[in-house]
Amino acid sequence: MTKKICVFCGSNSGYNEIYSDVAKQFAREIVKNDMILVYGGGKVGIMGIISKEIMDNGGKVIGVIPKFLNNMDLGSKNLTEMKVVSDMHVRKKTMYEISDYFVALPGGIGTFEEITEIITWKQLNIHNKPVAILNINNFYDNYINLLQKSVDEGFMKQIHVSNIIVESDCVRLIDRLKSAKDKQELKFI
After folding, report:
1. Per-residue confidence at 188, pLDDT binned at 50, 70, 90?
2. Which residues contact 44 (CB under 8 A, 6 or more apart)?
3. What is the model's pTM?
4. Label partner for 169 (CA 20 to 30 A): which of 7, 19, 26, 99?
């Protein structure tokens, strides 16, 4: 069965070309591994770059976009499937329900919120799906350090940070997702 990989990423491209270059490389790895991209449906920024690269390389993409963003003409027109939903909450729930894996690429506050929520849901045993961060150009170092600080100060369990796959290499990240043997504790928080 073809796996669906949900990617959270920026609606901007960032100042450094490395973000766009690695997003394209990651897109090609998704196609090479016969995975379907699930993402926020946008045509701009890293979102647009990764979806276009997958479509250009013969892959499949499912976009999930809230009606208000689609009405602003921010949705991509060249996807395998576009799901237009009522709001941001339904967007995240839909992306969660149809995906097998979750990966964060660089982005802004929306991306941080999405990956943090999916990590929280894993901690609460709402799901047991692999979660990863593609740490391009050390972008997520401070985020990872903040999570570890939360552990060190007694606000979070180490297992919940250890469950997050962190890689700077696209090939290794996908290999680790596909072979993930979850260490999730089966206890509430």
Report:
1. very low
2. 11, 12, 74
3. 0.94
4. 99
